[in-house]
Amino acid sequence: MSEEALFQAMCLLYALAALAYLGCLVSRAKALRPLSVVILLAAFAFNTAWLLNRWRIADRPPFKTLYESLIFAAWCIILVYLFVELIYRIKLIGFLSIGMTLLTLYFAHAQSKSVAKLPAALQSVWFIPHVVIYFVGYGALTIAFITSILYLIKLKVKAGEGEQLADFDDMTYHATAFGFVFLTFGLVTGAVWAKVAWSDYWFWDPKEVWSLITWLIYLVYLHLRTMRGWRGRPAAWFVVAGFLAIIITYLGFNYLPQAQESDHAYISE
Amino acid sequence: MPQRPKVRPVGVPPRKLARSDSADAHTPTRPHAAPPVPPTSEPDDDFLSAVWKLLCSVKLAIVLLVFITLACIFATTLCRSMGAAKALVYRTWWFDALLALLAANLACCTVHRWRFRFRQTGFLLTHLSIIVVLIGGLIGSRLGERGHLDLWEGDTGDAFVPEKETKRIKTATKGHAREDVEPGKPLGFALRLDKFVLEKYGPDYSVYVQVGGGSKPKEFRFDPKPGVRQKVRRTSYAIEVVEQAQNAYPHFAAVNKSSQPHNPAIELELRDGAEPFGAAWLEAKKKDRSSFFDKPRGLRVSYVWCSTEESYASQQQSVDEPVREQLVVTIPKTGVQKEFEVKVGQEITIPEGPVRLKILRYEPDFVIGHEGVTSRSAEPNNPALQVEALEPAGGRPQWLFAKMPDFGMTHGGQAKDVQLRYTHPGQDAQAKEHLKIVHAHERPPVLVVARDQKLFACVPFKVGEALQVPGAAYTLKVATFYPDKGEVMEVRTRSEAPTSPAARVKVFGPRGEREFWLFALEPFAHPAAYDDGQLHLVYAETREDKDYKSTLTVLENGQPVLNKTIEVNDPLTYKGYAFYQARYAQNPETGKFQTGLQVVRDPGLPVIYVGFTLLVLGVVFALYVKPFLKVGERVSE
């Protein structure tokens, strides 16, 4: 199967999965719940196949161009969501996660699809761990963003089969805590790698600074959680802000005035 | 989802609650948490206690973190360059003060809240780690050194050029290493560059598309994906690579366009017995295509077209004067024309001009390669001369070509005042025998044979018939005659080396679909343009840098003590100094490489790495391990 065909099949299956998850929200049909998971797993399998295929074509990990990395980001969101599904079984989070994935893929589709070569600086043992750690973290924090919004709009959703309501505040905390550890690892591996490749662990490069800003925002959230009067809704806003910081670090970066000086820019042409 | 109820623990007075922003569920007792003091107590004590409380508070930590975040957002969005961001934010006293305050806050908070309990390991490690990292950074910035050391292959250096703190070196990117005259800072040992290796990728072939003209054409690169139609972004065009060939050559098939002698041409065949030794098309009206030269026999064949009866007759009786190598200088204003012998390095002066020229360089077989001008061979196939005008001054050195005498007139800087023409016999100088084919409209071709500049024979012959050349062992045949020769390009593929990658590309545009063959070896020799003149295509190789490596030897008192090949991501460390592969440069004349090394000494680095380790362990403990401990403890209680 060609790369193009794999991409199309993956998008189609994700769209079907989104419809199936939506169906679970509006219909009481029992068969729909396992079916939706099967479709999502099939889409995830195609996503994985796309990444492996690109790895084979490019002869390097598929994290170099913006196009590849967006498809990997989509994969990470679903990877984390599949674990969330095992724990909480709240189809609404699934529907919104797949929605985020589709948005990511739509954005990927607009990017240049050319295969770039790996420059010397990226030929490092740190390349795969650094990128994978960050993107799994971003996946978790995307889920945290979804649950924080659900918490902020005070949505009442039943958690599982029982009568108990889903505690979106608690979910946001757990997803953020999980993702924050990955952000910390990403920051540290990035610093160690920069030391080996570029001679210093910290350059005040705009990408570095924005990853620090992101980390600091979630750090504030984790501290606000310990303070009475701040731990609920005010803290949740920091999760929303943290997600915006991720978007700027990852995608808005090229629009920053110092992006031209940075060694971190994605190749998009 | 209802909000968490704001319930106050029973028995805790409201005032105390307001301050108990505890990091843990259990609030530890504080050294200064005395019962409300009477107003008569010392004000100093009260003040210190307030400062202590503030420094221990999570609130201060949050305020500081928010301020640092805002400062960073400001620095990255509103400062135009990284230098400006450093000058306005990162390297200011107030940013340092924020970090110092954060360190103090962390220290107080850690001392104040930490109890020797296993479950508090994460809290201790994370808070301690940030302090350690900040201390490590401080050591590095106060006691560290950084700079660069550039070495040519074979050279030894024992000092580096220190770098100004605010200037950021764009490392790990190729660029020209700088020449420094400063003596630099001594290393205490010497470093020798034994070898430099540049590794390249590929080659890869891409289709380059240029859309629009003027000063800002848009350029796009396409990876060939056979059969896939690829849109040219933000334009109405699309391209599709139909096929790629590893070894395809353009072949120009001759065709006759009319019966009028606009471009008279003959297809020549030469045989020595049964052995063919020469085949070519000769075009009389094109100077660079009107003759053929066979080196082993010292034989030159030329084709002359005569438009009048007189010249047809006179050409049959004349022998061509040999061309001499010379530089002809003409001053149009005064009509002065002078010929000069050509010697590289020579200066030519014409006092009437006044004109003063210098002959800079001679290339027998001029070609522009990757490293600039060079000769393809030692044979005078394309003799060229580089001349610089010293007077009248201002012109750039220009190339003159013997085969294109008009080139110098149209492309020279001093075309108006001085005209230069370069003549060179080319391979004609080696010709012992000259066969001239004299031809005219509705007249038979005549073979004029000259040996050693003397007329030997003159024979009329027929097109299509082989003719024994008088006094020679070989035969000559004019297989075809076209009075108006034109060319049609065909593509032929071969299997033997060297390869010639090519691509057949379809272009979809406003005037419909067009197809082009593009050849990578000579990307600009057969330019492909869409009908509207707005889109141009080129198929060219790209060879990106893969890696660059420097083999270095450390010398102590002239004795080698350590040898290592460094590359990006693999530095050399010796006596506290680390040497990083950062840049390289190459001398275009000699091909010799210069390596650009980044030199860093950072005594704070071990501290930083301890901090990183503590941070990673602490975060894992606090967020992954502790939540499970809580459950266990609750059960045991």
Your description of this structure?
The complex is a heterodimer of chains A (about 270) and B (about 625). The longest helix of chain A has about 30 residues, at about 170-200. Chain A has helices at about 5-25, 30-60, 65-90, 90-110, 125-150, 170-200, 205-225, 235-250. Chain A contains eight helices and no strands. Chain A is flat and about 55 Å long. In chain A, helix 2 runs antiparallel to helix 3 (about 65-90). With about 625 residues, chain B is α+β, with helices and mostly antiparallel strands. Chain B folds into six domains: about 1-115, no CATH class; about 115-145 and about 600-635; about 145-200 and about 545-600, Tick-borne Encephalitis virus Glycoprotein, domain 1 (Sandwich), CATH 2.60.98; about 205-245 and about 495-540, no CATH class; about 255-320 and about 430-485, no CATH class; about 325-425, no CATH class. In chain B, strand 4 (about 205-210) and strand 5 form a beta hairpin. The two termini of chain B are about 30 Å apart. Chains A and B meet through helix 6 and helix 7 of A and helix 3, helix 4, strand 5, strand 32 and strand 35 of B.
Low-confidence region ranges of chain B: 1-41, 165-181, 409-415
> How many distinct beta strands of chain A?
0
Total domains of chain B: 6
In whole angstroms, the N-to-C terminal distance of chain B is: 30 Å
Radius of gyration of chain B: 41 Å
Query: Main beta sheet of chain A, described?
Result: none
Can you count the helices of chain A? Answer: 8
Strand proportion of chain B, as a percent range, falls in: 35-45%
Placed side by side, the strands forming the largest sheet of chain B appear as: 33-32-3-2-1-36-35-34
User: Which oligomeric state applies?
Assistant: heterodimer
- Total number of helices of chain B: 9
Distance between the termini of chain A: 25 Å
What structural class should be given to the helix and strand makeup of chain A?
Answer: mainly alpha
The percent of residues in helical segments of chain B reads 10-25%
Shape of chain B: elongated
Order of helices and strands of chain A: HHHHHHHH
Whole-number count of domains of chain A: 2
